[in-house]
Amino acid sequence: METNFDVLIIGGGLAGLTAAIHLSQKKLKVVLVEKSSFPRHKVCGEYISNEILPYLKWLGADISELQPTNISQFRFSTHNGKTAEAKLPLGGFGISRYALDEFLYQKALVNNCSILKENVTDVSFKNDSFKVTTSEQILKAKIVLGAFGKRSNVDQFLDRSFFHKKSPWLAVKAHYSGNLDASLVELHNFEGGYCGVSKVENNIINICYLCDYATFKKYKNIEEYQQNVLYKNQHLKFVFENSTLLFDKPLTISQISFDKKKAVENHIIMIGDTAGLIHPLCGNGMAMAMHSAKIASEILLEYFADNKMNRDLLEKKYSKEWQKYFGKRIIMGRILARLLTHKTITTLFVALVASFPGLLRTIIKQTHGKPIAIK
Questions:
Q1: At 343, which CATH number?
Q2: Do the Cβ atoms of 36 and 355 come closer than 8 Å?
Q3: What is the dihedral of CA 157, 161, 165, 171, to 10 degrees?
Q4: How many separate domains does the chain show?
Q5: Strand pairing report for 169-178 and 251-256
Q6: Would you say the pTM of this structure is higher than 0.90?
Q7: Tell me: the pLDDT tens digits for 50-86?
Q8: pLDDT tens per residue across span 295-333
Q9: Does residue 247 lie within any of the structural domains?
Q10: How far is CA 70 from CA 49, 50, 94, 181, 183, in A?
Q11: How far, in Å, CA of 239 to CA of 231, rounded?
């Protein structure tokens, strides 16, 4: 097969697949390398802000084909069960990663994007070009996009600074059947973490929570942990006791790092969670991943069309744009996560929101963007 490409994308999550669709429909030679098969479930909140809809429409990806849920309301609860509610400023939709990733994967194939099921083992940059070694072959490309997620073996051989720091966070996700208002996305606090609950397609409930590993490891298994920790929040107890697990067992990932990352490293343009991870409690990671792919794709198309735009200018422009759109959101996410895992502060927060109903909507806006403009 062809081994020389304009753009090579490492990773087939939302950011990688979105960039693959965008760039390949503009007739660049694109290859995406992903170590896992499609479709598959992923640990993810599976709620997406409607800010991404104009861009998906422009890509020719009509999400309505997947029959997602329409989400318009947000409910938050503290450890002791006190609640606050707000109408979401833009609203959003619920869709599983199993369905969405497969949908985008098929769109990329239709655009004649090459997609390889291989594991990347090395990336080197020399003479203004990349050489990417996989488990099967050596590929060459002018540009490499890093879309390998929250934590990867690629981070390790690139020697990224955050990879050497131990993270206290563990995430758990599963699908359930049960009764839940499909227009509602819920966020519930518990000791050492928080849990998102919302519906996706086919009337399925997605429950995904982030927790402190130090608390988690005190228990024998996930079920025991949930009953002894999450169930102390009466709302979570009700959800779990009135839902039936659809997976054989919940999915888990560990060592989730929210440390600051660089948008460009070793000349690789990082997109999605690879560039920076917003705390899941903000509910905007999926939209941000696809938006970052749009930003990178537009700048890359400018780079390939303009001989005056060198690599240094490309990297500086992308870093600036990434910071412009996502820098403040990620900082706000860190602040909220620090505050809303503190029992006293969360109780005061709900009391404050009850007195000033518009406050919650204002806070939500700080971690979300406006509908994405198409050039």
A1: 3.50.50.60
A2: no
A3: -80
A4: 1
A5: antiparallel
A6: yes
A7: 999 999 999 999 999 999 999 999 998 888 888 888 8
A8: 999 999 999 998 789 999 999 999 999 999 999 989 888
A9: no
A10: 10, 10, 7, 10, 6
A11: 9
